[in-house]
Amino acid sequence: MWNVGGNIDIDVNNVNLSSNAVITSASNASANAGSINLKIADKLESRDSTISTESTQADSGNISIATGFLTWLIDSSVTATVGGGPQTTGGNIQINSPYFVLKDSQVIANAYEGKGGRIGITADTYLADWTSTVSASSTKGISGEVNINAPLTNLSGLLIPLSDTFMDRAELLKDDCETRYRQGKVSSLIVRGQELIPMQTDDVLPSPFPSN
Question: Hey, how many other C-beta atoms are within 10 angstroms of the C-beta on 143?
Fold first, then answer.
């Protein structure tokens, strides 16, 4: 039975989590949950795994993730939650990474009766698909704050799966085109390159001489 969670400090080059791996600090007593601090020189990759702090009676611990290159969450979660009374606060989550990518994942700093924690994300590029969530809310209390500082932000409204249904050719072709197709009379377009020495990318493309 867990009572008070201690702090977790990890300072490595890379972290790879998979198959329901867990990094967690939790408390079911009056003391706060411990904090998790990940300092990663290169990349954090998490698949089907969890990084979390949790407290049932006191404040949740904070989570800090700093990577030198990439933070990539796939079907994973980073959560700092608290289930106590109005005086409790969800833990804060701070993520600093040049590239931060979420795929079907969650970053959550929620509370039940207390105040939701703060989430801060600082990245050069931030990408999140439409199934991912970043939330700092409270069921009965005051919601927390989410601050994303990145040039490219959430793509949840732009990324949708491509349809696997092919369009009917006959519906797309006009009647006269379809008639010629059945008669074996079809057109073609052939693209040929110029028979010249390859040019530099910043050169001007010359026009061909007109034929007499």
Answer: 17
